[in-house]
């Protein structure tokens, strides 16, 4: 089978997504409307007129060479990765090259390794283990490993930085499996500190409520405070307003805002995104004051419970770095997330296929000079 790649409508793309158990939210038509700095296009793989695969492609021009674009497929496309990769990706490359793309960057939604919480905890405690990949006995997923080999053999170039965070999607994430589990099962798997903090929030009277679009300004004020405290650059309020509006319009259950208040004061907030059976903790914010009431843990527990009630298979806490070195400030992130009792995951990562090598080299040089 060699499917034909062609543009599809948002309605066709959304119908395909809804027929799946789940796809990443970055592969929904609405996400293309959130990423306003890119030109979005929904593409389909057609076999005899039947839609057998779909992908959201984001196009971005090269500085100084506006007629050429980088074609980016975040966490996609949604195709049969177990099949002949060439039959799927060769027609995609031909389609995009004919329309001015100088390269394709994609991120297959396939994992290569997983490490359970106990293994990660042991690694954090062992000074001889500096990275997740140094933990023995991690589970290897043969499907992801096979795709990595096939991409490399077909001329695709891996774009995976040492810390796991590139210009696009993180290669390492942390998730809590939910399929077949109850609230008690999930709670019992958490470490003592997480359970204690959830109980502290309840005892302190922290109330978690669902927010509306009108509450985004309050969320953003707390988020900007968090960014200043933790040293990252915050997204503007307009981004969250667009995100909330577009994802809600596509599916009323796609996005939710959680607000944790203590004695009427907003102490934590979080945004959850869900597509089918997969839920993501997308953004969070917390107040420096009243940290002892554990509003962030109250938000996390509320989101996990709602993901369970919605029949989700996974609660995804998203990116981590692979470091286990206690001297590395990033180690605190995985230490926090491992308390959920979940698992660390390594994905195939992002890969580039140069379609116009000279332009691609110029783009790569430009990105290196600006530090990606």
TrEMBL record:
Q: Pfam families from the entry?
A: FemAB (PF02388)
Q: Which SUPFAM superfamilies match?
A: Acyl-CoA N-acyltransferases (Nat)
InterPro entries assigned to the protein according to its UniProt record, in alphabetical order:
Acyl_CoA_acyltransferase, FEMABX, PG_Glycine_Bridge_Synth
Is-annotated flag, keyword Acyltransferase?
yes
Gene3D superfamilies reported in the protein's UniProt record: 3.40.630.30
Which of UniProt's keywords are assigned here?
Acyltransferase, Cell shape, Cell wall biogenesis/degradation, Peptidoglycan synthesis, Transferase
* Keyword Transferase belongs to the record: yes
- Similarity comment: Belongs to the FemABX family.
**What is this protein called in UniProt?**
Peptidoglycan bridge formation peptidyltransferase VanK-Sc
- What organism is the protein native to? Streptomyces albiaxialis
């Amino acid at each position: 089978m060699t499917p034909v790649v062609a543009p599809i409508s948002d309605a066709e793309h959304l119908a395909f997504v809804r027929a799946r158990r789940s796809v990443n939210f970055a592969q929904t038509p609405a996400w293309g409307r959130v990423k306003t700095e890119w030109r979005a296009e929904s593409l389909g793989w057609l076999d005899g007129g039947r839609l057998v695969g779909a992908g959201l492609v984001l196009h971005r021009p090269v500085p100084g060479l506006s007629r050429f674009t980088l074609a980016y497929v975040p966490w996609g496309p949604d195709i049969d990765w177990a099949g002949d990769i060439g039959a799927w990706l060769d027609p995609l490359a031909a389609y995009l090259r004919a329309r001015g793309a100088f390269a394709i960057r994609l991120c297959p939604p396939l994992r290569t390794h997983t490490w359970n919480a106990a293994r990660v905890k042991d690694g954090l405690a062992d000074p001889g283990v500096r990275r997740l990949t140094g933990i023995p006995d991690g589970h290897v997923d043969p499907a992801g490993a096979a795709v990595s080999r096939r991409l490399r053999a077909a001329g695709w170039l891996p774009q995976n930085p040492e810390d796991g965070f590139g210009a696009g999607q993180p290669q390492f994430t942390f998730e809590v499996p939910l399929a077949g589990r109850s609230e008690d099962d999930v709670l019992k798997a958490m470490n003592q500190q997480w359970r204690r903090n959830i109980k502290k929030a309840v005892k302190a009277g922290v109330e978690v409520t669902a927010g509306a679009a009108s509450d985004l300004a309050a969320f953003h004020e707390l988020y900007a405070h968090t960014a200043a405290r933790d040293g990252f650059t915050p997204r503007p309020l307009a981004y969250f307003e667009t995100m909330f509006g577009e994802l809600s319009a596509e599916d009323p259950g796609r996005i939710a805002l959680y607000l944790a208040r203590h004695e009427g004061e907003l102490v934590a907030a979080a945004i959850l995104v869900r597509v089918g059976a997969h839920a993501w903790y997308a953004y969070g914010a917390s107040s420096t004051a009243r940290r002892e009431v554990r509003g962030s843990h109250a938000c996390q527990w509320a989101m996990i419970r709602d993901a369970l009630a919605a029949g989700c298979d996974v609660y995804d806490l998203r990116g981590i770095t692979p470091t286990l070195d206690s001297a590395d400030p990033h180690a605190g992130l995985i230490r926090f997330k491992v308390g959920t009792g979940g698992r660390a995951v390594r994905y195939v990562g992002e890969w580039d296929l140069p379609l116009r090598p000279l332009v691609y080299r110029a783009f790569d040089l430009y990105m290196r000079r600006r530090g990606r």
